[in-house]
């Protein structure tokens, strides 16, 4: 299926010192702020979705990816059904920009994980583009030029520049761009309409309207030269008390701020 390309899994991201380690990250090193102080950083909102990617084989075959495997069908891919429809609808526009050279990574936000979003602009939020020719991840301005040609929505950029104090960097960790004040009421309504246990859905959901965390990139010379993440402690506490993994639960769709039909417009 993948033609002449082996799959490129998105790199695992170390934590900035002070970040709460997520399950599975115990073997990752932590980066001290002193290592990035005075360097040019791009700080994005870290969104709670499924790591996904869109690319093409050398013969022009559309390749949709979830972490380390291509999407080929099956029950556990059911939360990707809309992504498959959307990507195929915009296949030609994507190919004109990406060709077989670039891989576009993003969060697929359809299914609720720990955070419930009720004001998303799109279900696919781009956050990185990899250049297969040069073996680099493009910097933010280069990505922006490409995503604008595809009408793709990117994760929110909170700040860009040089930081000399960790406190000022972490001060960016505030309310999510995609969570309204009434998100819990919205979750209760959606859960009830689906016939689900409303109290259980609320227990398995972070009640805060805060971001999951920050995603921080050091950029230089047109590329990303290092990356790290900072996850707020209260987010991990909610993950810890959840009774099951989100993939083993009924799919509760996060909500869009626009009609779903807008996703398919050219």
From TrEMBL:
<protein>
    <submittedName>
        <fullName>RNA ligase</fullName>
    </submittedName>
</protein>
<dbReference type="InterPro" id="IPR052732">
    <property type="entry name" value="Cell-binding_unc_protein"/>
</dbReference>
<dbReference type="GO" id="GO:0016874">
    <property type="term" value="F:ligase activity"/>
</dbReference>
<feature type="domain" description="RNA ligase">
    <location>
        <begin position="40"/>
        <end position="231"/>
    </location>
</feature>
<keyword id="KW-0436">Ligase</keyword>
<dbReference type="InterPro" id="IPR021122">
    <property type="entry name" value="RNA_ligase_dom_REL/Rnl2"/>
</dbReference>
<dbReference type="Pfam" id="PF09414">
    <property type="entry name" value="RNA_ligase"/>
</dbReference>
């Amino acid at each position: 299926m993948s033609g002449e390309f082996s799959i490129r899994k998105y790199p695992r991201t170390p934590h900035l010192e002070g970040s709460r380690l997520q399950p599975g990250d115990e073997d990752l090193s932590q980066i001290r702020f002193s290592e990035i102080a005075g360097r040019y950083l791009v700080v994005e909102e870290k969104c709670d979705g499924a790591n996904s990617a869109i690319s093409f084989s050398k013969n022009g075959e559309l390749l949709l990816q979830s972490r380390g495997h291509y999407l080929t069908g099956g029950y556990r891919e059911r939360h990707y059904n809309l992504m498959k429809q959307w990507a195929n609808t915009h296949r030609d526009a994507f190919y004109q920009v990406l060709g077989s050279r670039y891989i576009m990574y993003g969060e697929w936000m359809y299914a609720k994980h720990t955070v419930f979003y009720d004001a998303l602009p799109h279900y696919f939020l781009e956050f990185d583009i990899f250049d297969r020719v040069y073996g680099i991840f493009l910097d933010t301005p280069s990505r922006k030029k490409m995503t604008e040609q595809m009408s793709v929505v990117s994760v929110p950029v909170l700040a860009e520049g040089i930081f000399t104090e960790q406190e000022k960097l972490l001060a960016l960790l505030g309310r999510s761009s995609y969570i309204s004040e009434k998100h819990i009421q919205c979750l209760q309504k959606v859960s009830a309409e689906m016939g689900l246990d409303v109290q259980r859905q609320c227990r398995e959901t972070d009640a805060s309207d805060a971001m999951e965390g920050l995603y921080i990139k050091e950029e230089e010379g047109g590329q990303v030269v290092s990356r790290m993440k900072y996850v707020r402690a209260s987010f991990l506490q909610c993950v810890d008390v959840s009774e099951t993994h989100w993939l083993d639960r009924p799919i509760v769709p996060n909500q869009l701020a626009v009609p779903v039909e807008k996703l398919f417009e050219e």
